[in-house]
Amino acid sequence: MSSKKQEAERPDPNPDCNTMARRCLHCGAEKTPQWRTGPKGPKTLCNACGVRYKSGRLVPEYRPAASPTFVSAKHSNSHRKVLELRRQKEMQGAQQHQFLSQSSIFGASNGGR
């Protein structure tokens, strides 16, 4: 066996020394088969988020299912489900906007007395 091969197989005697815990800036994952480039630079996204970022589909509602920040009511790893979550969020925002505009109309007419 060559010395290079032996070095590669030998575990690091102190794995926590000199290594900082890396986290995906989008989903918070610490373990990934490959770190990828994101909007903040190289090796800032996990493999799953990096692939989505590169294809232009990285949105706030997307999370890998294994992500520590995954909440099924807010996130999905399915593009179809992400689109559904976004549509629901937009409808809620439109309803809130409509409610606020109606309440300000009623508030203005009562305040003039």
Automatic annotation (TrEMBL):
SMART domains: ZnF_GATA (SM00401). Residues 88-113 are annotated as: Disordered. Pfam families: GATA. Residues 18-54 form the GATA-type domain. Residues 93-107 have a biased composition (Polar residues). The keyword Transcription regulation applies. Keywords: Activator, DNA-binding, Metal-binding, Nucleus, Transcription, Transcription regulation, Zinc, Zinc-finger. One of its GO terms (biological process) is cell differentiation. It comes from the Eukaryota. One of its GO terms (cellular component) is nucleus. InterPro entries: GATA_TF, Znf_GATA, Znf_NHR/GATA. GO terms for molecular function: sequence-specific DNA binding; zinc ion binding. PANTHER family: GATA TRANSCRIPTION FACTOR (PTHR45658:SF127). Belongs to the type IV zinc-finger family. Class A subfamily. This is GATA TRANSCRIPTION FACTOR 9. It comes from Salix purpurea (Purple osier willow).
